[in-house]
């Protein structure tokens, strides 16, 4: 904890040591009416005052009232007694406590100040005139008063004083420099805005942090080279052309003979020196090669690096205002070309970060505690693997896997175990994770022992606790010159107070800003310069910090603590349940891929980032975009509907066209075809499973067999190897059977013969009966009518109908043409004549 001494104790000590009367209420400056500050402090030098220096303060005073002001004076008040502890700095900076009244230099502005106008001021005083005592941090107030002595503006700051000490107290400081941002993409090709392009520009947040932390010239000019080719954006990490060692070996050419001999001698000497020589050689190979400036440890989020890499590599989509996208609708997006600013940033990052230690969070800083609590261990473990791959892709070299960076510097026992299983032995934590368990009047060292976890290696695990006070100071606003000057002054004072605590032994403080640190360039440069120049600070490399001495610090901090507020802020089970819905679709998509790929896993991990704890709306829209992309991917493996199938015979074959519209993945699918009515139409054997290359199509030929004419629907669907359908609906293929084939014709012919056989005897009997009756009538007519009176043509008397017998019965079926069968055999009614013209007697008579 930062506040380790109670406020009443501090105020009692301050009152005893600083017996100055407080100023009257009239000394409190009035609030500016138009937003302008009546007093601005732009510069205070030097950072640390010694007895030979001159204190200089400059800035501007402005009339923020509605009336002209005269006889305005800017003056200094200070105390000749230093602060007693760090908490006293907080109390004084608020301006609500005691007021020092030792007078310092002043600058009277003789010109009249009309409303809204300003005037610069400058104050200076030799250190020896201030009458300060020994090393320490002293109160300093800069204020402007009008002619009546009323305070119109004041600034409360600090005066670090070294005095005449040649060897002031000292403390080591190790810097952790963050290069992180919230996830910028939904799926791999869709960005939630164009803010990242601005961030990596020269004056963007990540651009400033990179160039200032480098402490060497960094160029943001694209240059004449092809950056895509130079960065090897399409190559494997090990093939990166920016690997300086590999490039040097390739371009150096043959090694001269004398150099070879020298190397051989060195090797022989190393063998003679034994293990010590081997350890030195290993150290030389692995140590970063920074030769100037303050060593910094770069803390990166692999997800951020991956976003920048994707933006630099190729064309991508940018969603315009994702918060306005209605649920379930396609957002307004535009296609954007590869970002040159991202390419330049990557080029410089690869060069700069290779000089220092790089440590990394898991991919996209996931909420590991929430994932493990909701039994999503697979996603938690995947974030480490994906993170390692992303760092190597972007930087061409790995991060130091000994370091663990839990989200917000907090972890519970389960997260500790997970990090340990992934090889971590050094944990960067906040003071809330390992609070001081006793009321210490001093600042403890950053190192603290950790309990051995199940996954710990042989190396002893330690925590490196970031100083809470330093973290807060680094997060102070620095948008204006005044804010920068005052924040820098506070950083100098805070470190001077830590160094001045007489505790003995070596101590280290870890300066680790928040992941979203956004300082001004002047402030970021100022804290590094102060680290390098202040006599009480000594820069330390984070990877060289040794474990604490047990006898000195084993009881200083308590056990690992996971605050209730952290648990309450975790991603909720409801939200993670919605992410699991997307994950189920992702598993389905992966199940049809030929290679062991998981292309949507980074998108899922991005959905589980701690950044969405307070950004529910963005997280919801991001999840919808990812789900839509997964559904589109499943929809790209599809059956293309064809025309209706017509069978002209009993059997036939139809082709089912299956397409893989995915651009990068081959798929292996199972085709299922079944008839809606198997009694009418059956399905034969066909290829049920097959592989399709990216962008290809294949036709599966399916035999069909119809038993009955008519329409039947055939259903076709695609499945994975486990039999699960990959699309929600099957494709329907109507089949019309219009012909029955040879067997059907044979059956029809046999049926016709049976019918004829059944009707023939009846027809023959009817014919015989008709002939007999006709003959009898002919004989009777011949006996009653005189010879020669027979009607011509053998017509029956009284005009009887030829087609009916005497009883009116149907004479039987007609033959083709309408004649009755009896007419063929000369039955009555035949009009047959002899050559003489006489009527011939009827045939068949007497039969």
Distance between termini? 139 Å
User: Strand portion, in percent?
Assistant: 15-25%
* Assembly category: single chain
Tally of separate helices: 23
Helix content bin: 25-40%
Low-confidence stretches: 1-33, 235-286, 785-847
**SS-based structural class?**
alpha/beta
- Across the major sheet, the strand order is 2-8-7-4-5
Radius of gyration: 49 Å
Global morphology: elongated
Mean pLDDT: 81
The biggest sheet amounts to: 5 strands, mixed
Topology, number of strands: 29
Produce the secondary structure layout:
Layout: H1 7-17, E1 39-45, E2 49-50, E3 54-62, E4 72-78, H2 86-93, E5 102-109, E6 118-126, E7 136-145, E8 151-163, E9 171-179, E10 190-191, H3 195-199, H4 205-214, H5 227-231, H6 244-252, H7 257-273, H8 275-286, E11 296-300, H9 302-313, E12 316-319, E13 333-336, H10 340-353, E14 357-360, H11 368-373, H12 377-395, E15 403-404, H13 413-421, E16 426-429, E17 447-449, E18 462-465, H14 468-474, H15 481-500, E19 508-511, H16 521-533, E20 537-540, H17 550-553, H18 564-569, H19 573-590, H20 601-607, H21 616-635, E21 637-640, E22 645-647, E23 651-660, E24 667-675, E25 681-683, E26 689-692, E27 697-706, E28 710-719, E29 731-737, H22 741-784, H23 821-824
Parallel strand pairs: 2-8, 9-11, 9-19, 9-20, 10-12, 11-14, 15-16, 16-18, 22-29
Antiparallel strand pairs: 1-3, 3-6, 4-5, 4-7, 7-8, 12-13, 17-18, 21-23, 23-27, 24-26, 24-28, 25-27, 28-29
Helix pairs in contact: 4-16, 7-8, 9-10, 9-12, 12-20, 14-15, 15-16, 19-21
């Amino acid at each position: 904890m930062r506040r380790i001494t109670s406020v009443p104790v501090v105020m009692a000590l301050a009152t005893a040591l600083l017996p100055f009367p407080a100023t009257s209420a009239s000394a409190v400056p009035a609030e500016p009416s138009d937003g302008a500050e009546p007093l601005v402090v732009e510069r205070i030098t030097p950072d640390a005052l010694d007895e030979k220096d001159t204190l200089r303060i400059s800035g501007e005073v402005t009339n923020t009232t509605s009336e002209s002001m005269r006889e305005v004076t800017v003056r200094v008040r200070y105390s000749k007694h230093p602060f007693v502890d760090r908490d006293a700095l907080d109390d004084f900076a608020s301006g609500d406590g005691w007021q020092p009244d030792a007078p310092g230099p002043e600058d009277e502005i003789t010109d009249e100040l009309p409303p809204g106008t300003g005037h610069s001021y400058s104050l200076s005083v030799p250190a020896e005139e201030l009458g300060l005592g020994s090393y320490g941090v002293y109160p300093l107030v800069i204020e402007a008063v009008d002619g009546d002595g009323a305070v119109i503006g004041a600034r409360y700051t600090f005066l670090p004083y070294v005095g005449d000490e040649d060897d002031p107290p000292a403390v080591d400081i190790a810097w952790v420099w963050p290069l992180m941002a919230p996830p910028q993409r939904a799926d791999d090709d869709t960005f939630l805005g164009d803010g990242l392009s601005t961030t990596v520009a020269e004056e963007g947040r990540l651009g400033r942090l990179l160039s200032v932390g480098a402490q060497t010239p960094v160029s943001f000019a694209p240059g004449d080279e092809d950056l895509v080719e130079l960065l090897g954006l399409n190559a494997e990490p090990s093939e990166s052309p920016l690997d300086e060692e590999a490039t040097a070996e390739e371009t150096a050419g043959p090694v001269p003979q004398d150099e070879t001999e020298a190397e051989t001698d060195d090797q022989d000497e190393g063998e003679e020196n034994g293990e010590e020589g081997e350890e030195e050689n290993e150290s030389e190979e692995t140590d970063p090669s920074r030769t100037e400036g303050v060593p910094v440890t770069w803390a990166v989020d692999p997800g951020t690096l991956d976003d920048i890499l994707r933006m630099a590599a190729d064309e991508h989509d940018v969603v315009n205002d994702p918060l306005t996208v209605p649920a379930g609708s396609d957002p307004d997006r535009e296609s954007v070309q590869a970002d040159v600013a991202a390419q330049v940033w990557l080029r410089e990052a690869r060069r700069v970060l290779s000089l220092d230690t790089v440590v990394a969070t898991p991919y996209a800083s996931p909420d590991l505690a929430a994932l493990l609590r909701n039994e999503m261990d697979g996603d938690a473990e995947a974030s480490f693997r994906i993170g390692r791959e992303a760092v190597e892709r972007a930087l061409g070299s790995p991060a130091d896997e000994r370091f663990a960076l839990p989200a917000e510097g907090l972890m519970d026992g389960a997260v500790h175990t997970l990090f340990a299983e992934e090889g971590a032995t050094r944990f960067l934590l906040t003071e809330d994770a390992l609070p001081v368990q006793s009321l210490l009047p001093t600042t403890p060292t950053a190192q603290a022992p950790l309990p051995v976890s199940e996954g710990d290696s042989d190396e002893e695990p330690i925590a490196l606790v970031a100083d809470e006070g330093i973290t807060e100071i680094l997060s102070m606003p620095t948008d204006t010159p005044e804010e920068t000057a005052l924040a820098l002054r506070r950083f100098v004072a805070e470190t001077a107070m830590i160094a001045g605590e007489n505790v003995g032994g070596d101590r280290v403080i870890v300066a680790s800003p928040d992941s979203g640190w956004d300082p001004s360039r002047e402030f970021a440069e100022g804290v590094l310069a102060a680290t390098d120049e202040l006599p009480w600070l000594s820069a330390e490399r984070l990877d060289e910090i040794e474990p604490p001495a047990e006898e000195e610090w084993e009881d200083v901090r308590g056990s690992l603590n996971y605050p209730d507020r952290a648990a309450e802020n975790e991603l909720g089970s409801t939200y993670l349940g919605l992410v699991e819905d997307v994950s189920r679709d992702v598993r389905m998509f992966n199940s049809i891929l030929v290679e062991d790929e998981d292309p949507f896993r980074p998108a899922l991990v991005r959905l589980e980032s701690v950044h969405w704890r307070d950004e529910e709306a963005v997280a919801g829209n991001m999840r919808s975009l990812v789900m839509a992309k997964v559904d589109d991917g499943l929809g790209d493996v599809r059956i293309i509907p064809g025309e209706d199938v017509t069978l002209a015979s009993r059997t036939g074959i139809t082709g089912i066209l299956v397409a893989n519209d995915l651009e990068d993945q081959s798929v292996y699918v199972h085709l299922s075809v079944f008839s809606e009515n198997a009694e009418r139409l059956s399905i034969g054997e066909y290829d049920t499973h097959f592989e399709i290359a990216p962008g290809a199509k294949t036709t599966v030929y399916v035999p069909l067999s119809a038993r009955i004419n008519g329409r039947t629907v055939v259903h076709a669907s695609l499945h994975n190897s486990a039999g699960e359908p990959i699309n929600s609906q099957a494709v329907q293929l109507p089949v019309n059977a219009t012909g029955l084939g040879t067997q059907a014709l044979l059956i029809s012919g046999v049926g016709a013969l049976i019918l004829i056989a059944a009707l023939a005897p009846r027809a023959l009997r009817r014919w015989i009966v008709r002939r007999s009756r006709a003959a009898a009538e002919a004989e009777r007519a011949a006996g009653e009518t005189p010879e020669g009176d027979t009607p011509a043509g053998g017509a029956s008397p009284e005009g009887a109908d030829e087609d009916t017998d005497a009883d009116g019965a149907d004479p039987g079926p007609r033959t083709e043409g309408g004649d009755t069968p009896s007419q063929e055999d000369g039955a009555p009614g035949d009009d047959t004549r002899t050559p003489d013209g006489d009527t011939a007697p009827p045939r068949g008579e007497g039969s």
